[in-house]
Amino acid sequence: QQQVKQSPQSLIVQKGGIPIINCAYENTAFDYFPWYQQFPGKGPALLIAIRPDVSEKKEGRFTISFNKSAKQFSLHIMDSQPGDSATYFCAASKVWSGGTSYGKLTFGQGTILTVHP
Amino acid sequence: DVKVTQSSRYLVKRTGEKVFLECVQDMDHENMFWYRQDPGLGLRLIYFSYDVKMKEKGDIPEGYSVSREKKERFSLILESASTNQTSMYLCASSPQGGVSHEQYFGPGTRLTVT
Q1: Cβ partners under 8 Å of residue B78, min gap 6
Q2: Chain B residues with CB-CB distance to A103 below 8 A
């Protein structure tokens, strides 16, 4: 069962554009929402993460917007660069479960971002 | 620098063969994970382990088993490989507890079953 739905599947923008990737989740127990970035031939790496007690988090050119009532969150990339071309995955996790934290993540389907020079 | 290594980058096996994928982490992490990555499906969790000799099924465990005899090593086993197990396999590790659950991934093993 897919508990995190991500869109679009692919996205092409020009350099300087602002690509936006959206994710929606179903499980209201999720309390940690990271984004991972994957370059070709590499494993995914953590890019930025947010907890549901804030509506926005910014790190450099990357911003997560979080809407708890709609159960949606999105990644915005300001002033996108060709070097941002990668696959992006949203994910969600229930940090604590029965007093133990395993950090098990549920990932979205992924978005292939291409930034043209 | 944190590191997760996987035994092979590319692997070609025949249908029915037993396949072992090895993963080693050098960060003393308690948690280790095996995912498969398929286009349009994202990363799907096969199994994870939160301690030596402990394992839990993920979302798609059918056709797979795992072994964790040492803290740093987590193995994925395909008992009898089938063509629908052709995929990219990713291993990850993370520390237990704390506020950050960052998972550190290996580079992946692209498995082709013919």
Answers
A1: B13, B17, B18, B19, B21, B63, B64, B85
A2: 31, 94-96, 101, 103
